[in-house]
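In the previous chapter we treated chains in isolation. Here, by contrast, the input contains two separate entities that must be folded as one system, with a combined length of 542 residues.
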Amino acid sequence: MRLEGRVALVTGGSRGIGAGIARCMAEEGAAVVVNYVQSERLANEVVEGIRGKGGRAMAVQADVGNYGQVKSMVEQSIAEFGKVDILVNNAGIAGPSEPMADISPDEFEAVIRNHLIGSYNCTYCLLHHMRGLERGDVIFISSRQTDFFPPNSSPYNAAKAGMDGLAKGLAKEERYNGIRVNVVAPGLVPTDILMEELRATTGKDSVEEVDKVMPFGRMMRPEDIGNLCTFLASEQGSHISGEVIYVRGGVGGEPPSFYVNGPKPYYS
Amino acid sequence: MSEGNSHSLEGRVALVTGGSRGIGRAISLAMAEAGADVMVNFVSNEGAAEETAGEIRALGRKALIYKANVGDADAVKTMVGVAVEGLGKVDILVCNAGIIRRDSHVHEADLEEFREVIENHIMGAFNCVQAVLPNMREQARGDIHLIGSTNAKMLPMGLTSYNVAKAGMEVMGRVLSKEEQGHGIRVNVIAPTTTETDMASGLLKRYGFSSFREVDPYLPLGRIAQPRDTGNLCAFLASEAGGHISGQVIYVDASQDRKPTQEFFSSAAQRSGI
């Protein structure tokens, strides 16, 4: 049990990558706060799944873009589990797929508020608390996009690049306080959002069909991201801080073949 | 453990160059603890290699030692043949063997010393990778770890040969990951900061410290990096749990200031009044 005695708060933990991270950390012994904003039923399923295996978990509703709600979530978490010493800033929304010229100020701000201000809100709210603990870990879930910045994705590009920058400076600020800060940047994971895009761009309907054309025999799963987050927060990963690590399953740099002829040639 | 989450290296065979001492020894042991059999390459200290192999066997794993200079392509080919013969295959390669030649700016650098460092790191990594690829491509999965250094980012003056060698290994690793991804081979560069090893003990003495414990308080997280920090990451990346990470350069440095270690030691010495 690599995370015995630890308490993790995973934002956007009810679905997709966030749910994978929550489950991985719980399997290694951490108590987990599963944050959600709309998907109460799914958040409860993640919590029940963890409890069913003998773990500790609870679901807390909060919009990370709203500081008041974040503060209340953090207070509930500490009241329930005594502390929060792992924060995973995972909550994210897909941005509009349009050139910047066609994105309204409100649309732009919504994405920045969710990813960047949301990460700030959660981190700021927990930082002083974490400084008083033996060890703290803050993990930002960024994106493959900061490696190649595709067009028609300006709010998402900017939000994720902002998270990378926030994390790298924060790692230096907090390194003498025992707080590790890292960025995990996933490649293609078959979440609800991605499967919709896949159907639209390739006509492929199942993950298994796509698995066959992936370099390492399959697309990634949320657990692949969860495993790295868990390693970084564990004793084994304790000397790693300030890093941006892409988890892309061997599709680094070049778009996977099934996207090349699709309407989104820059996807990778 | 859910499927795909395993940290086990059971059934795997690792070849660790410079695997008898320091960081290489920690990598060899981390691999063995996770279940891999290991060939420990060494070039000068046979006693240390025997000792490391003994510890691996005590963990219930097979171990071989083999003396070879990684800069010698023929010797490396023979070594890989012996590993495949003795342990069945090589599906994890760790290019860790390294040397350092200190304190000569380019204008006064010794040509032979410069060549020696480049040959050891860059040609050494190339020789080992080329020698293992035919066998590794036949395996269900392969992993190549190139051991880099934070020097490739900090670029301290006076260590040009080492900086260039480690930066070259980063580039080699990133390109190799693309070339071999279709063969199921993951390639990553693991780049430690100054770590508590024989190689770093010279720095301690130079700045008047008598032990690494005196330096610890000045470092992020209150301790100097341990060989095991690098070993742990190597074992994780080679496992099922790390199976989708490739083409990455990962620094194991606790977000240390990206400034030369000499400067750091020197300022720590000043602050501690030495």
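The two ends of chain A are 35 Å apart (CA to CA). Chain A touches chain B through 39 residues (CB under 8 Å). Compare these points with the single-chain example from earlier in the chapter.
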